[in-house]
TrEMBL record:
InterPro entries cross-referenced by the UniProt entry: DUF3176
Source organism per UniProt: Penicillium olsonii
Alphabetical keyword list: Membrane, Transmembrane, Transmembrane helix
Name of the protein described by the UniProt record: Uncharacterized protein
Pfam families: DUF3176
Top-rank lineage group of the source organism: Eukaryota
Transmembrane segments: 41-61, 73-98, 493-512
């Protein structure tokens, strides 16, 4: 087997082209042969197949729950394996094509033998490719060097493609319950309500509603008693019967109506009437006593409550007048404040409810007008509308307000009377006198005296009463959806452009290299073979190939042995 000339004086280190003995061409084999481009074609197809496989997996999992991925190995791992195989496959071809271009380069004209090392180093990795770009010649091998430098970007970019994100997924559930009420129909024991000689003034309030009133007036935190196992949502809207409170400061107008007896040095008693028609009384005795709080209530219906007058004034249920003062050290009434409040029947339209734990919010909570266009009626027996009540009740018929359909709403007659009786009771109609005259019945005065925001407390009372209806015995359930967190796949497709562009460049480089070298038999297909270099003889600035067939070179290499001296 031929090698380099051993006499250094016979071959100075000058530029050298490849030269063959005589005009014979190099032996070429089948295009798909291992001695030609068969292996490189196979690895290029394998690289393209791996990239297509990655693309298929990405399209398959894009926007889907990660739970739908059935294989035991994660999609990230599969993509990583395919990407690694893709890089290994196309880099095999890139290395072979760069090795082939050095023979093309030396075939065209004489070059320094140092270029051989530059081509070989460029085909081995990024460092050699960078050195080739800086110091090497500008040939088609430059494309291979650029691909070699760019291929380390593929792995980190692919790792950025697949992202996992938490999404809210909802599904109907019987455990997601939001209450609403169209009828106030809490019952009392028959022994208290069905006696033949029981007067309507003795009708008690149901204990749940009484507790709600006290809860609101004392400013105790009010929470929705909905049912939700975690996070829930309710689509659409629900219209529910409820209550509302309206208050206004009427100090000046009320004091102008006051008539007083006595003077500051003796017992002075003043009677006055608020704009809502509520009578209030105050008394003060210099250095002895003074009124700190007085609340009175009045039914808006005229005269005694009867079946004929029960609907008068509705939707108003009760009017309140509250007088407060801050007596000084001599028991003179200072900082007098008088407030009118009204409790009314109301209806609310709840939309877009969402709950998380013990907290619930609504996209909107709008009050529905129950004004004169929707009057209240009394029925002494069975009601055949949507309320389906067999007891006497006051009600409104089904109506519309713009694009909102308002269902029939009602209050059982005995429950309405129980409410009014309670507001007339000593629990609510209270007086607090500080000084020598002790207060024997303070009722709710301790919750409202001083600088307490009266309007806020009455609105809390109305809210608590409304919640009692929505979640009490009169409640009807609205079933919603339970919201659960589920992990979804989100793809950053821009990162996938990096491996696609590099693979496309590798394919173009492969096509140019294979078909370019196939056109001429004057260039051997030796690629990066070290045996081909050993088969060349350098003499007089020429590289002489002693064999025209790469297969023959390999056979000789298998037969011969060599030892480094």
């Amino acid at each position: 087997m031929a090698g380099y000339e051993r006499n250094p004086r016979s071959h100075p280190y000058d530029p050298a082209p490849i030269s063959e003995e005589g005009p014979a061409d190099y032996v070429r084999h089948s295009f798909l042969s291992r001695s030609e481009w068969g292996l490189e074609i196979l690895t290029s197809i394998l690289a393209l197949g791996c990239l297509v496989g990655v693309a298929y997996i990405l399209f398959y999992i894009d926007g889907k729950p990660i739970a739908e991925w059935r294989p035991w190995i994660s999609p990230n791992a599969v993509v990583s394996i395919l990407t690694t195989a893709c890089i290994a496959a196309f880099m095999h071809g890139v290395s072979a094509f760069m090795g082939q271009h050095k023979w093309v380069y030396f075939r065209k004209k004489s070059h320094r033998l140092a270029r051989l090392e530059q081509f070989d180093e460029a085909s081995r990795g990024p460092y050699g490719s960078l050195s080739f770009l800086v110091k090497g010649p500008r040939t088609l091998a430059t494309i291979g060097a650029l691909i070699t430098l760019a291929q380390p970007l593929i792995t980190p970019c692919v790792q950025q493609i697949i992202q996992l994100e938490q999404r809210d997924i909802s599904h109907p559930a019987q455990t997601a319950i939001l209450g609403y009420a169209r009828l106030y129909n809490d019952t009392m024991p028959k022994s208290l309500t069905r006696l033949d000689n029981s007067a309507i003034e003795t009708q008690p309030i149901d204990p749940r509603m009484q507790a709600s009133i006290i809860q609101g007036l004392f400013g105790i935190d009010i929470t929705e008693t909905f049912s939700c196992p975690g996070a829930c949502s309710w689509e659409g809207s629900s219209i529910s019967l409820g209550f509302k409170a309206e208050c206004s400061n009427v100090t000046q107008a009320t004091l102008q109506s006051a008539t007083c007896e006595g003077d500051e040095d003796s017992l002075q008693t003043c009677n006055m009437t608020t704009p809502n028609g509520i009578g209030l009384t105050s008394e003060a005795w210099f250095t002895d006593r003074a009124t700190a709080f007085y609340m009175n209530a009045s039914n808006p219906s005229v005269g005694k409550q009867t079946l004929d007058t029960v609907t008068q004034g509705l939707p108003e249920i009760m009017r309140f007048g509250i007088l407060r003062s801050t007596p000084d050290d001599n028991f003179r009434m200072r900082e007098i404040n008088i407030t009118d409040c009204t409790l009314l029947i109301a209806a609310y339209n709840y939309t877009g409810a969402r709950a998380n734990g013990s907290d619930i919010t609504f996209a909107s909570k709008k009050e529905i007008d129950l004004g004169p266009d929707n009057p209240w009626h009394y029925a002494g027996g069975s009601v055949t509308n949507d309320l389906q009540s067999v007891d006497p009740l006051v009600f409104t018929n089904k109506s519309t307000n713009g694009d909102v359909t308002i269902p029939a709403l009602g209050i059982k007659y005995l429950n309405l009377m129980g409410l009014r009786n309670f507001f007339h009771s000593p629990t609510m109609v209270t007086r607090w006198i500080v000084g020598n005259l002790g207060t024997t019945n303070s009722g709710v005065s301790s919750a409202l005296v001083g600088e307490v925001d009266i309007e806020d407390r009455f609105k809390k009372m109305a809210t608590a009463m409304t919640n009692n209806l929505r979640y009490g015995p009169s409640s009807k359930p609205t079933y919603g959806k339970v919201i659960e967190k589920e992990t979804y796949v989100k793809l950053n497709w821009w990162y996938f452009l990096v491996p696609v562009v590099i693979e496309a460049a590798a394919i173009v480089f492969a096509i140019i290299s294979m078909f370019g070298s196939r056109r001429s038999r004057h260039v051997p297909v030796w690629k990066y073979s070290i045996l081909a270099v050993l088969a060349c003889q350098y003499e007089n600035g020429k590289l002489y190939s002693m064999s025209k067939d790469i297969k023959q070179i390999r056979k000789e290499a298998k037969r011969n042995k060599a030892e480094l001296q």
